[in-house]
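Thread: quick sanity check before group meeting

JM: Hey all, I'm pulling together slides for Thursday and realized we never actually wrote out the predicted structure for the chain we discussed last week. Dropping the sequence here so it's in one place. If anyone has concerns about the input, flag it before I start.
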Amino acid sequence: MKINIKNTKEIQFNGLLRDKSFINGAWVSSENESTFEVTNPFDNSVVANVASLGSLETKNAIDCANEAFKTWSKTTAEERSRLLKKLYQLQMDHVEDLAQILTLEQGKPLNESRGEIKYGASFIEWFAEEAKRTYGDTIPSHGVDKRIITIKQPIGVVAAITPWNFPNAMITRKIAPALAAGCTVVIKPAHQTPLSALALAALVEKAGFPKGVFNVITSDTAKEIGNEFTSNSLVRKLSFTGSTKVGKMLMRQCADTVKKVSMELGGNAPFIVFEDADIDNAVDGAIASKFRNAGQTCVCTNRIFVHDKVYNTFVDKFTVAVRKLKMGSGFDEETAVGPLINKEAVEFVDGLVKNAVNEGAELIIGGQKIDDMGNFYPPTILSNVNSSMEIFKNEIFGSIAPIIRFKDEAEVIRMANDTPFGLASYFYTNDYAKVWRVSEGLEYGMVGVNTGMISTTVAPFGGIKESGNGREGSKYGMDDYLEIKYLCIGGI
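JM (edit): ok, ran it. Output follows.
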């Protein structure tokens, strides 16, 4: 398959562009031959027609994964590590191909796509090593004739549902610890961005993983696939990244079979600039955190709080920096902000801006739809935002920066925590006593201090409150895919 993209050269992707699902080591169409369109957010052109599978094919994939689990779970950690390392190297060998596929279906600038591919591959590399460190314990016994030990065993078949905003990294962040632990996986990628998942499946196949260990179900009927994932008793773990609304529904559905679940859900990240902050660094951090992937990340800055004493200075410098951001095709190397994922996303953020202005916010820059360009919405700054406005309460998922004035530490912590979400947060200060107080006071699973970029393989990623449960990445990332078994040995 090859494709000619507007304003770019012809790209062939070295055999990684696929349009069929991957089940039990085979590329399969749906039983009724149905497909769905994948479009380029830059101009809404159709780039592929991908197989749309249903519950029957999903059940088959789960059955195959369960059969594969019987042998995969018994392979040595060294064997699993070797295959994961091979997959990592293949990803690194194909960074450009994978990045181009990602930009094609998701729209983000190519430099960001390259970064995502490397970030995604880093989870494969990390957990290739962690596979060899699933240690148990010996425990002092309660009786002289007994010995107590614990071992860790893979939980079983893992179903994973991944979002469109990071179509490579959100898969590798889930499958890497699962495969390293000895689990088998069935992935349902977002229907907007299935091509990255299928490209990864092509590399899994090339790496030589056994049939049934890694499976990808593509479909535009998410509810049907989700129902099979949650009701099938062979699935022992569900991992989901997406909206809080859908996450809550999946958790309810998993209750009937008491599955282990991990949820990475919505966010409403505060970005706080104290009066003693380095303003230039804070501006740089806000740009990086707010406008990466056109604001379409769960850890993006959502509300910018600026101390009254530096408010005007920050707004002026921030506005200058935002004006320099270039919008355009992700395949243009100078592009800093790509399109939103679809027209619905444009309408949503435009509605938030209009409502905020009607409620008294001041529009500094942007704020107008661009009707003659794909799914673009310009980088927008709103000042004089307050906590009563709709935009204060919603996850924006777009390149909109609302700025709120505050006067003291206690006030801003209260406002920052005034949300049901608790994923990521950021603040800038040069007072190290304040670093500890504010870090401990913010009700968030992750806190960035004097930085707007916090995602890394080696640290635990996850939230509290309605932002979910479980942690991905780091030494803690294997825990959700393992069961602890306690052995009490008597008669000694």
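AS: nice. The chain has a mean pLDDT of 96. The chain has two domains: 3-265+468-486, 269-457.
JM: adding both to the slides.
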